[in-house]
Structures
1.
Amino acid sequence: MVNEFLNDTKEYNIFSYEDYKSSSLALKLKKIELLNEYYKLIYKKEDKLPVFIDFDGVILDTMEDAKVLLQQHHDLDWNTISRDNAEQQALLANFFKSLNWHTLLSGTREINESINFLKLIKDSVIYKPTIYSAINSLEESNEKHEYIEENIFGIDHKFTMAHTPKVSDDKRSILIDDDNFNLNNWDGYPVHFDSKIESIYPTINDLGELYFLFYYHDDNFCINNELKEEYKKIKVIH
Ligand SMILES: [Mg+2]
């Protein structure tokens, strides 16, 4: 069985992060599909790695669309908003509450095959993914819930009110997020999803990269060595 699998994968070096990064998105998906099969042969994990995945700016490009609407309707530039400016924060809260999330979710660009990657991560034997989103209104919560059920049926999700730090009670938990506030407050392993700005955190551009950064080997939780060095600079890890 293992030999059959290895024959199938001879043409791809599925374990190389370098090769992965230079592949097209279609090939990346294929490689992750093969890695799923590989892990199924090797591991039957009861104790999966918890991975929390932000929604806006990681799965869908809703923030980019929201920024355009904010400029159009309120003449407010997203880049000039300060967390300490109460007036701006109140306007922002109202803006997000009044957004038509149904239209936004159905019209917004999916980021780098996020849905297909999430389906693969959901089927993996080593990761336990949860979509973790900050929400501003009941309508947003309902629409996101419906979107997730429709597009990635069966994946866990967790919604908390906006401006509340995201939390997990498992110290090994990985958070993939594009927002510094969420990453700064995360107790486990923060991973910056590419937001085109410099980050002190390790950065990824597609969700498949997860497989090369955190994985199981010989029944142990492993963290990519380069990544380990990066984490040592920002926080104490064992
Ligand atoms: Mg976000």
2.
Amino acid sequence: MRREKGKRERSSSVRPDAGFRRIKPEAIKDNPFQAMEGDWFLLTAGDLKNYNTMTCGWGAWGVLWSRPAVFVFVRPTRHTYAFINKNDTFTVCFFSKRYRQALQFCGTHSGRDCDKAAETGLSPARASNGSVFFKQARLVLECRKIYQQDLDPGLFLDPDIGKCYPQKDYHRMYVGQVTKVLYRKQES
Ligand SMILES: Cc1cc2nc3c(=O)[nH]c(=O)nc-3n(C[C@H](O)[C@H](O)[C@H](O)COP(=O)(O)O)c2cc1C
């Protein structure tokens, strides 16, 4: 059966990850130092009906317990904190430089007060792990939460680290097992 031109694009059955190709975690070419603190990323937890996203600049990816893993750090004061605690999955999305303003917005406004997707024009979509990613992302890491721990200031070995916490709102660290990696086929 011949498909009418453009029909697939209009169909509601278009997969949310159309436009992306799946790669293995070990095929990620990005430099993590640049991707994390240099480019920032969006950390998103919840499902399409009820999710929140925030900008992060601190984090890591690598291997733990022989699994590909992402490490993210969320202060308890963030609206996202409740979402990542309540849900078993989350996503980490990286963007090209043209979305810098959108990430700036998501890192300086709270989901308690606004709809970040509506304000930035970012398009949320259902990730295959039930969480939410953004269609404009250039790199998406779908994660399953496998560990969490509150940072203990008593264990800081360099006293300067304490200066990052004038409000004593120590991060909670989450380790996510990377279950899927998507790279955008073309620059959005
Ligand atoms: C560049 C940048 C990096 C940030 N990195 C983090 C981070 O790693 N962890 C964190 O808890 N907050 C971080 N923030 C702050 C949150 O993104 C910010 O407080 C956001 O408004 C929280 O949104 P929410 O209340 O909707 O969760 C960062 C903000 C910016 C601008």
3.
Amino acid sequence: MAVTLRLLFYNVHRALYYANSKHISSNSNVKETNKDVTKDWKVELHNTMKILPDFISEKEEDILVKEVDPYMTQLRYEFSHWDDAIHGYRETEWKKSRWSKDSSQILDKVHKEAFPSEVKRLVLVHILDLAPEGWIKPHVDSVRFCGGIIAGLSLLSDSVMRLAMVGHEKECTECFLLPRRSLYIMTGAARYNYNHEILKSDESYFKEQHVPKGRRISVICRSEPDPQT
Ligand SMILES: O=C(O)CCC(=O)C(=O)O
């Protein structure tokens, strides 16, 4: 029962998350016609979307997976998200106190790397388990629920994340390889001005190489929303 209620709450939360994402996409001032918006877009994108390969070791990956797997495998993968934004997923959010000492140390490493000390992090860490056949459609995380830093560890599988500038999706788009055990840190332009998506396995290409995506667990830390939003 507790689990059911919690999931209900979480789904409402996610619904809002994506609803507001759409709101950003259609109303954000990034959609302005100013030509300067696309000037040097690639440099700016690469400056604000950082990928750190092998950020954690195989042993650390194993610690995290062994910790979250018993909980995640109790949940069913969802295939019909209300907003069609995400397919084949199960997810939860854990407070720091819920993690073991070993996992907490790994999360501390992420925090230290991605969040300057003055930036407040959301207390809950998001765990997203994407089925081998799952994928995430383009969206911008809602500014109502997330601040300027999104840091995600990729576990169990490589994948490809595509970023496309809102309003300039065709001309300003770039694929990023997210290798297993890497950390991505999305800030600034990448976080606010670009949709991000995780490609489905058969469309998952990086530099013309197919990157088959298996089951992928991401552990995502976010900063608190800006109080002015
Ligand atoms: O799995 C990831 O790394 C990205 C997740 C995501 O896009 C989201 O939860 O909004």
4.
Amino acid sequence: MTTPRPSPAHVGPHHDLRGPGGVGLTIGKTFTFEASHRLNGLHDGHKCGRLHGHSYQVTVELTADELVGPGFVTDFGDLSPFGAYLAEHFDHRDLNEVLDVEPTSELLAVHLVRWFLDQVQPVIAGRLVAVTVSETPKTWARCTVRATT
Ligand SMILES: [Zn+2]
């Protein structure tokens, strides 16, 4: 006697998470880059007004109602264009030159959400939930994507 195995139909490409007993799934991937910035409009003596650098961490979060392939929200490899964008345009750059807004974590997160929605979202399976930008281990700014229903 062999132990019955689930038929391939149960492990196929369609994993619908909705309906009775429905669950929610979120995945995340963290990217890093090094960059400098200086914030304008602060009172004299504010340390963020001086040119300085951070080891930035950027985390994207995605969700989906239906999984693809072996059971993915999105194949992490499909996020590589986002990593390439960060590496090319942000790594070892002066963010004051890269962005046309003040380079705060908040405004960087908003910029990255908009870029992701425009450039990556259309060609991946999942949908973006949020982008979190962190300049230090203890601080972060999270820009969330409002659901469109
Ligand atoms: Zn800073």
